């Protein structure tokens, strides 16, 4: 084999490798939505995915990140353990749940599902008990954590939290049954100007579990 033939073949190998590499880079960053503020279709509804392109977030070992980029907000809980309680009736059928309950022992750490700012720390005796509202960095989403037994040490309004940062601990404060401690977790889509108690609820279950909503 001549030297020219060897050089030509090596050249084609290099070109092929470069093209294949470029394809996979394109596929993962464009086809799967690798840019900031990407959207995906989940259960027929367009939902925000947390892929900011920021440096990797150091998430505690016990924290599991769901398929939409949200951390399951109770440490140690896996997607298969989640139950879709979003449409369950509450208050004797007067309203729907509009959230999911993540069952866990009292004192289990609750972590931020997504980065944002602690907008409101609030106690509702006849409702969510010890609660925290975290607004996303772009202001479009609010993450609601309720029935906490306590806040994480030092948590305060205006604080910036990263995905996986401590928010509080599972409990049964407010109108929760003490025999079934859990985190009441809700996500609200926020329009410009809406306050912490407002917004339109969406179902967190498919975002955390990667499964269709229950019917």
From TrEMBL:
The coenzyme or cofactor needed here is:
Zn(2+)
Organism per entry: Sphingomonas caseinilyticus
Q: Does the keyword Hydrolase apply?
A: yes
What Pfam families does the database record attribute to this sequence? Peptidase_M23
Q: Which residues form the M23ase beta-sheet core domain?
A: 96-203
Reading the lineage from the top rank, the first entry is Bacteria
Transmembrane residues, as ranges? 12-30
Q: What is this protein called?
A: M23 family metallopeptidase
Which SUPFAM superfamilies does its entry note?
Duplicated hybrid motif
Which InterPro entries does the UniProt record give?
A: Cell_wall_metabolism_enzyme, Dup_hybrid_motif, M23ase_b-sheet_dom
Record carries keyword Disulfide bond: no
Q: Which UniProt keywords apply?
A: Hydrolase, Membrane, Metal-binding, Metalloprotease, Protease, Transmembrane, Transmembrane helix, Zinc
